[in-house]
């Protein structure tokens, strides 16, 4: 039986960058053991929110909590043992192999002087097997396709063995077949391991198809949060994406399918 994942929660969260506030007094609870997709137009605050949940962006007000504990007070290594992050466009060192990069996911579980263990090896082997990379273990990352490279980064996160995995646009620059491959892999991880998955995604229809829960953002605030069928309405699409669209059931999955109306795009208010 899979142990319940911890709860990641933002309370009255305000965050941003020097001279620019991006998130405004935001409340959000990530449902444990589910797949949550965060969607919204460019500059809506999606990546800033993910960064705050991952403790990369310190709030200017409010808190991010893990099982009720302010993450600012959790030791970095202990936090990394529970919460993993795959950022946008991660960069691998030149010449590093698949197995070497995946092995770096074990760093949060090893002390400075702790030797590599059989458990470390097993976690790395399992992560590569789950992502279909076993036969590529000795290949340099630079020799792989875009889809293969993304699977390596996900494998590194799996080797970390987090209970919560945050991913910032993991399908960017991938063709459609590789996008589906990555999303299928994440859903499989959620279903088999009970890992909480949180993904920032651009593509509305893929988000609706794969998510248990959708978080829709606009101008640094959450405008809708819930099941895709409840959240993805014509009004929400118009508000969040400045787009007139029809929303109908996908003929294959029954999940919401957003079909833009020709000429239906209109100017979005300046988020600044």
Query: What separation lies between the terminal Cα atoms?
Result: 47 Å
Helix content: 25-40%
Radius of gyration, rounded?
19 Å
- Which structural category fits the helices and strands? alpha/beta
* CATH secondary-structure class: Alpha Beta
- Average pLDDT works out at 89
Low-confidence stretches: none
Would you tell me which CATH topology applies? Answer: Rossmann fold
Number of E-type strands: 12
Percent of residues in β-strands: 25-35%
* CATH A-level architecture: 3-Layer(aba) Sandwich
Query: Which strand order spans the largest sheet, edge to edge or round the barrel?
Result: 6-7-8-3-9-10
| H/E element order | EEEHEEHEHHHEHEHEEHHEE
Number of helices in the DSSP assignment: 9
Question: CATH superfamily name?
Answer: P-loop containing nucleotide triphosphate hydrolases
Please give the structural blueprint.
Layout: E1 8-17, E2 20-30, E3 35-40, H1 46-53, E4 61-66, E5 69-70, H2 76-82, E6 83-86, H3 98-103, H4 118-130, H5 146-159, E7 164-168, H6 176-193, E8 196-200, H7 204-210, E9 213-218, E10 221-226, H8 228-231, H9 234-241, E11 243-249, E12 256-265
Parallel strand pairs: 3-8, 3-9, 6-7, 7-8
Antiparallel strand pairs: 1-2, 1-4, 4-5, 9-10, 11-12
Helix pairs in contact: 4-5, 5-6
């Amino acid at each position: 039986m899979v142990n319940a994942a911890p709860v990641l929660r933002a309370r009255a969260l305000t965050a941003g960058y020097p001279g620019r506030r991006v998130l405004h007094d935001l409340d959000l609870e990530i449902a444990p053991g589910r797949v949550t997709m965060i969607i919204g137009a460019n500059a809506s605050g999606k990546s800033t929110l993910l960064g705050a949940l991952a403790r990369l962006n310190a709030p200017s007000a409010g808190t991010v909590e893990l099982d009720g504990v302010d993450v600012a007070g959790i030791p970095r290594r202990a936090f990394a043992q529970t919460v993993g992050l795959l950022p946008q466009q991660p960069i691998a060192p030149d010449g590093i192999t698949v197995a070497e990069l995946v092995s770096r996911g074990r760093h949060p579980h090893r002390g400075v002087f702790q030797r590599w263990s059989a458990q470390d090896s097993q976690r790395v082997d399992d992560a590569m097997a789950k992502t279909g990379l076993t036969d590529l273990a000795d290949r340099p990352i630079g020799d792989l396709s875009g889809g293969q490279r993304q699977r390596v980064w996900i494998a590194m996160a799996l080797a970390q063995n987090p209970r919560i995995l945050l991913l910032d646009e993991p399908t960017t620059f991938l063709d459609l077949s590789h996008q589906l491959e990555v999303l299928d892999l994440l859903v499989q991880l959620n279903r088999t391991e009970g890992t909480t998955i949180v993904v920032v995604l651009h593509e509305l229809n893929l988000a609706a198809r794969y998510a248990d829960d959708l978080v829709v953002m606009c101008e640094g605030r959450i405008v809708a949060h819930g099941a895709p069928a409840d959240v993805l309405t014509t009004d929400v699409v118009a508000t969040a994406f400045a787009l007139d669209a029809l929303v109908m059931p996908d003929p294959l999955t029954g999940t919401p399918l957003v079909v833009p109306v020709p000429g239906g795009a209109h100017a979005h208010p300046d988020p600044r």
